[in-house]
Design brief:
Blueprint (H helix, E strand, L loop, with lengths): L2 H11 L4 H15 L8 H20 L5 H20 L26 H9 L6 H14 L4 H5 L6 E4 L4 E7 L5 E5 L2 H15 L13 H12 L10 E2 L2 E2 L2 H14 L8 H13 L4 H8 L4 H5 L8 H6 L14
Antiparallel strand pairs: 1-2, 2-3, 4-5
Length: 324
Amino acid sequence: MHAMERWERWLRDAEASSRTLESYKQVLTRISEQTNLTADPATVRPFLVDYRNKLQRRYENEEISRSTIRLHIAALKSFYRCLVEQSLYPENPMEGIQSIGGDRGLPRPLGKGAVGALFNAVDPSTPEGLRDLCLLWLCYHSLRNSEAATLKTSDIQFSQEEDSLVLRFYAKGKKERLVVLIDEAAEPLAKHLLQQYGPPHWKEWLVGERPWINAVAVLLEKHLEKRYLPVFLHNNRPLTKREFNRIFQRYREKAGLTDAVPHQLRHTCATNLLDNEVDIRVVQEILGHADIRQTQRYTQVSTGRRAKAMRRLSLPALREGAEP
């Protein structure tokens, strides 16, 4: 009897639900199209490790959910547990390969050099390059890849109070977020919007010490107010998250960052803010976290913060010559 058939019978004997069985079968059928699951363990084990790592990267890229990873790992583990128990396979190649827990694990920020290499891989002198630079800046301002890719012109405002461009939109969980752009990010976004949606005479608005930001403030107020237009296009269509991920992959490879994903720019933003002693409640608001425990995960990867904080502790007034 074929190994897959033995495994199906084994699951039925264990009284697995028909829904579980069907879900597991779909997963294993898909995986078996990529490799022979009953080949030599020395071949299968590296494939399974790599497969698990790819699932993790897709999760971090917000392409799949935690439940999808759990489903795939559970299906594989049940398959090999059955084969080993019935002496159909010499060892369990899934031994030590973990699923994903209820928490999300520690964030993985990029190093300063890696972020620089990624940004330097973009040529902003072309319309596509300018668009891509804007996308990187938005992710580095804590936006998720889906939020950056699907941004609308109605989400962008010029704030007199902040004296900058701000993004106001509904994020994950239908929670409103307000993100203030620093000038280094606001300027390329202003150029992109003016080139894409500005009227023929828009260059007349380039005045003052911050000409691009002043010009886009006019565009937003007089021409784009309450218009729900896509900020980013690809082949004259609204950009999708999947297309953005492909764009990011191109720059990732150019920068030599083989495993980087867009979401790591969000992680890097949060970690850098905490490293620079921004209050954790403010970081929580920037990231759009409903629960501060989500934000507290970043304090575990922020290095040297405790020592830096303690050095700011006021010293007691000691008598001269007193023992410390």
